[in-house]
Amino acid sequence: MIVDEKPVRPIWLDADQKTVKVIDQRQLPHRFVVADLTSVDAVIHAIREMFVRGAPLIGVTGAYGVMIAAMNGETAGDGPGFIRQECLRLKAARPTAVNLAWGVDRVLEVVMAAGTAADRIAAARNEAAAIAEEEAENCRRLGVHGAELIAAISREKKGGTVNILTHCNAGWLACIEYGTATAPIYEAFNRGVDLHVWVDETRPLNQGSRLTAWELGKHGVPHTVITDNAGGHLMQHGRVDIVIVGTDRSTHTGDVANKIGTYLKALAARDNGIPFYVALPSSTFDWTMTDGVKEIPIEERSPDEVRYVQGLADGRITRVLVPPESSPAADFAFDVTPARLVTGFVTERGVCGASEAEIHGLFPEC
Ligand code: MRU
Description:
By secondary structure, the protein is of the alpha/beta class. Helix content is 41%, strand content 20%. Helix 2 packs antiparallel against helix 3 and helix 2 packs parallel to helix 4. Residues 53-56, 97, 168, 170, 174-175, 179-180, 207, 246-248, 258-259, 333 line the site of 5-S-methyl-1-O-phosphono-5-thio-D-ribulose.
């Protein structure tokens, strides 16, 4: 995407073809810092500590992690065996987003088919780059399909402002380009549709207020940051026309894992007759799981992420403690919205209902 007149992605390969560069998203919006990843440990750390986050981006980062493993495998004696072990470690970095295992396994497969150590490195590099380009293109395409939903509401409202509510950051920072939930928003905005975005702050790590608000602001998209609990009130008063969110893993039966709090937005949307759409590239479908509530692993993170809030004070990024020092806290990072609450999926192949039949109708080969 263009930020301050410069093209920027959240991940890229350095000119040395070895160093993986990522935006350290922990520091946005207050500081724009780029981190270098040169070891598998550094890649795992960047995923776990959320320098990089968001399902498609985690997938691409894992894919480049395999390239780094292949480079190290050259000196490790047992190249293929070493690379396989490193891939297991990469896949365990975070549990919920299916893209991580998908990206790692896809690169591992081409690496294992390569003949020499040099071939393995080249194969990994090419496949990781291919995944990044495919994800960018898939997000562009789903944006075109999703923009139609927004444009249709605009026509119904005779050009009146379309109010969209989104949760977490499912923007280009979470992907490679365009984003998932934001791709239809950018596309509709670029076409001149009058729209406004309600941005859930998304506690505890505030991906909405820190990242989505930053992205939308850089693109000139009108938006307002709201508390996570404001959505229901806005929906009751006719101030939300459509909800669009991303997902970390959606079953092929239509259940949706996304950032904690998404389920409550879906319940409120259903109670108020508001369409609730989930935007995703097909890499985020889990083709093996059928019951998302029972089967999708939900990450639990450090309670300190709930206890402390990060922000800017006196020009420095700082953390402050909110609850009593002695109060325990718990940090459930995701929840699952059952298919029955999902109006539809916006994918690179078009929009479909949240049912096994409709999803497989778009992706018959899966
Ligand atoms: O914990 P995070 O920030 O990695 O969670 C990200 C989300 O929940 C996003 O909504 C999801 O990955 C969709 S990304 C396009």
